[in-house]
């Protein structure tokens, strides 16, 4: 009967709107977390330290989008020359940096800091390289990977280990610098896309980017790397939609 169909639709919409309200609550929580981070670093000099060209898009798009226009210097510790495409990838990174309005860009090409899962980056080499930028740029905040490096890539992990040593070894130089690490998650959370808002809302410091379109366009500048599995990453990875950070 017609009135029974009407009741079915009412039942559907009731739960639909309840779900929408729940999602909005979690989004609101992340917005408050974004303000927490903004209070700490907005208007300050920010140094973002990554390992390879395209790290900034694959892992830090929400952060770079939220703080677009801020005084950010991106330090990329290799030019991604594992396949002999280092010079091409440097140009690609320059294009991506322009998309995010990144003020400063440093791309390192050293024999001891070459891209590769089998490349062992020495802590002292990383510290020496980072300190040169710190001394010239004098950042108020340094942001990088956590000890799991999102993907457990040894180059990512080596950066976090070195930055922790830098914080201790050069404490007088960086005493007024805040240190932040990008939170790594488990495999399921990593690939549930925007749905990870249900978990990320618990973070004290988070930023949100609800659409993957920006990341897709930015990743397109890394044309040499934008193969099919990275296209899937842009669609399904929670790092395209949100970043959560911890102080260390």
From TrEMBL:
<dbReference type="GO" id="GO:0000225">
    <property type="term" value="F:N-acetylglucosaminylphosphatidylinositol deacetylase activity"/>
</dbReference>
<dbReference type="InterPro" id="IPR024078">
    <property type="entry name" value="LmbE-like_dom_sf"/>
</dbReference>
<feature type="transmembrane region" description="Helical">
    <location>
        <begin position="12"/>
        <end position="32"/>
    </location>
</feature>
<comment type="similarity">
    <text>Belongs to the PIGL family.</text>
</comment>
<keyword id="KW-1133">Transmembrane helix</keyword>
<protein>
    <recommendedName>
        <fullName>N-acetylglucosaminylphosphatidylinositol deacetylase</fullName>
        <ecNumber>3.5.1.89</ecNumber>
    </recommendedName>
</protein>
<dbReference type="Pfam" id="PF02585">
    <property type="entry name" value="PIG-L"/>
</dbReference>
<keyword id="KW-0812">Transmembrane</keyword>
<dbReference type="GO" id="GO:0005783">
    <property type="term" value="C:endoplasmic reticulum"/>
</dbReference>
<dbReference type="GO" id="GO:0016020">
    <property type="term" value="C:membrane"/>
</dbReference>
<dbReference type="GO" id="GO:0006506">
    <property type="term" value="P:GPI anchor biosynthetic process"/>
</dbReference>
<dbReference type="InterPro" id="IPR003737">
    <property type="entry name" value="GlcNAc_PI_deacetylase-related"/>
</dbReference>
<keyword id="KW-0472">Membrane</keyword>
